[in-house]
């Protein structure tokens, strides 16, 4: 009886996500909380059933110094921004997962890469072959997109297939250098139960494709779907098995798309690739700062320029604010592209530490070009834009500001100050107000660098234009010579507003 009771208490079910075991089936894992991941594993999951097998001479382990590393070198894709994210290009045998929301441009980018690779010549002097497996569209639909973006090549092979077995057969027949699967959730194996896109199917499909990639030295690009919360659909095992996981981000109402590596076994995860998505396809944007700035002849109140870091890449961005008298009982706080709680905190700091009366005003804050900024370095530019709109004082052109603001009104240093300054100077800006830091900062030629410790001094310094003093000196000379009419409020308000 004791042995029978012990057998009944043996865990027979395990969660495929976290490995949690239970003696009976449940719909939701008791450890990680995922639904539909608990499956039967047998009566004794701890018993080892795999024994050692004989190893041939060709299979024996070799010293690491004898391994040929030349087979794992990068091959550029022809898309510079994607090469930046991947660390240099595609590596034979690597499996890359591209994930993003529907309609964000994943298929367009991958098809463009396929066309670029198929137009390249390999080391043997022949064209590189690419196999594009589509499970979501027909071959004719993919051909139309290829014509539109200019990705048609003689060695780019296309098949519309959802059966895993036939897809593997296509790989054996064509023997390509690169395989594209669009998408991994649409392939299905007849040897495994479950519908396409399910946990068991994705596990089987990914394992088979990864095995084919590693054994044949084929670079494999997998397109993956995401769930409502932005995570990659399917088991987390898929992210662990692949070599590179790239996340495709972007606003549907903006042409800018960003690709960043969440996981990269061959390079850094700090790089970000910027692309411009249009009707003619998707193109690399080497200098995306212009997409986040508005051009104007004269400075306008309520705007401030900052430098944000996307990974290790500095990007100039513009913050706009509008402060108007509230007509209702409760003032409105509307934010776009920034974190609402942080903007509300900055409004409170401006009220308390700078004496700006914003308690009865509606405040609208937004970024330009659909950019989303979450790093605290944008605090100073947001505060300056709000103060500029409230006092109707435009920030002089050529000035930038960045820095984190604390509740006490102090200005805190942020990472990458030197990189931000260098990028601003490269794009034609000549003055920056930044937090005081112990770093040895060097200002480029003709660039003025001002370090401040609190938001009050920083905003006041930002509003002052050194060129205005020269204008006033010239005006004094003119007034001595004779009467003249000037409008000092147009773009350059009296100093009493900001002092």
Can you describe this structure?
This protein is of the alpha/beta class. The protein folds into three domains: 2-40; 74-286, P-loop containing nucleotide triphosphate hydrolases (Rossmann fold); 291-467, Ribosomal Protein S5, domain 2, CATH 3.30.230.10. Helices cover 27% and strands 22% of the residues. It has twelve helices and 21 strands. It has a nine-stranded mixed sheet, with helices on both faces. A four-stranded mixed sheet has the order 13-14-16-15. A three-stranded antiparallel sheet has the order 2-1-3, with no helix packed on it. Strand 7, helix 6 and strand 8 (219-224) form a beta-alpha-beta unit. It starts with a helix and ends in an 18-residue tail after the last helix.
Secondary structure: elements and pairs:
Elements: H1 2-8, E1 13-15, E2 21-22, E3 38-40, H2 80-86, E4 95-100, H3 106-118, E5 130-134, H4 139-149, E6 156-160, H5 164-174, E7 178-182, H6 199-216, E8 219-224, H7 237-241, E9 244-250, E10 256-264, E11 272-278, E12 281-284, E13 303-310, E14 313-325, E15 333-336, H8 340-353, E16 361-367, H9 379-391, E17 399-401, E18 404-405, E19 411-412, H10 417-426, E20 431-435, E21 448-452, H11 455-463, H12 466-481
Parallel strand pairs: 4-8, 4-9, 5-6, 5-7, 7-8, 15-16, 17-20, 20-21
Antiparallel strand pairs: 1-2, 1-3, 9-10, 10-11, 11-12, 13-14, 14-16, 18-19
Helix pairs in contact: 8-9, 9-11
Protein name: DNA repair protein RadA
Binding site for ATP: 100-107
Motif (RadA KNRFG motif): 263-267
């Amino acid at each position: 009886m004791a042995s029978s009771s012990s057998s009944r208490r043996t865990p027979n079910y395990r969660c495929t996500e976290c490995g949690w075991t239970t003696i009976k089936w449940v719909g939701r894992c008791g450890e990680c909380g995922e639904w539909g991941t608990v499956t039967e594993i047998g009566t004794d999951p701890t018993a080892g059933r795999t024994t050692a097998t004989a190893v041939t001479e060709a299979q024996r382990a070799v010293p690491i110094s004898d391994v040929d590393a030349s087979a794992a070198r990068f091959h550029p894709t022809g898309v510079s921004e994607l090469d930046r994210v991947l660390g240099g290009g595609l590596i034979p045998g690597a499996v890359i997962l591209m994930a993003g929301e529907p309609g964000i441009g994943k298929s367009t980018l991958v098809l463009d890469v396929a066309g670029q690779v198929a137009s390249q010549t390999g080391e043997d002097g022949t064209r590189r072959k690419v196999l594009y497996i589509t499970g979501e569209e027909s071959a004719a639909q993919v051909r139309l997109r290829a014509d539109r973006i200019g990705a048609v090549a003689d060695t780019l092979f296309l098949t519309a297939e959802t059966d895993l077995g036939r897809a593997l057969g296509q790989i054996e027949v064509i023997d390509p250098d690169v395989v594209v699967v669009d998408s991994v959730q649409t392939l299905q194996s007849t040897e495994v139960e479950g519908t396409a896109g399910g946990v068991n199917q994705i596990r089987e499909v990914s394992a088979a494709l990864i095995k084919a990639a590693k054994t044949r030295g084929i670079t494999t690009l997998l397109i993956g779907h995401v769930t409502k919360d932005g995570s990659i659909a399917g088991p987390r095992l898929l992210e662990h098995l692949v070599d590179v996981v790239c996340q495709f981000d972007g606003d549907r109402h903006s042409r800018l798309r960003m690709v960043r590596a969440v996981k990269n076994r061959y390079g850094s995860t700090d790089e970000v690739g910027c692309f411009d998505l249009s009707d003619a396809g998707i193109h690399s944007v080497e200098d995306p700062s212009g997409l986040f700035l508005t051009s104007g002849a004269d400075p306008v109140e309520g705007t401030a320029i900052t430098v944000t870091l996307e990974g290790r890449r500095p990007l100039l961005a513009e913050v706009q604010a509008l402060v108007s008298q509230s007509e209702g009982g409760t003032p409105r706080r509307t934010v776009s592209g920034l974190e609402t709680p942080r903007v509300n905190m900055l409004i409170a700091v401006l009220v308390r530490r700078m004496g700006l009366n914003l308690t009865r005003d509606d405040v609208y804050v937004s970024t330009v070009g659909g950019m989303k900024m979450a790093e605290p370095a944008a605090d100073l530019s947001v505060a300056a834009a709000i103060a500029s709109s409230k006092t109707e004082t435009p920030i002089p052109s050529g000035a930038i500001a960045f820095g984190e603001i604390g509740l006490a009104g102090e200005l805190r240093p942020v990472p990458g100050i030197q990189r931000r300054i260098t990028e601003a100077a490269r794009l034609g800006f000549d003055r920056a107000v930044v937090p005081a830091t112990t770093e040895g900062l060097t200002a480029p030629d003709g660039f003025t660098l001002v370090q401040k410790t609190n938001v009050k001094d920083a905003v006041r310094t930002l509003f002052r234009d050194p060129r205005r003093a020269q204008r006033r000196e010239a005006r004094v000379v003119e007034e001595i010579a004779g009467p003249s009419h000037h409008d000092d409020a147009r773009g350059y308000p009296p100093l009493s507003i900001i002092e």
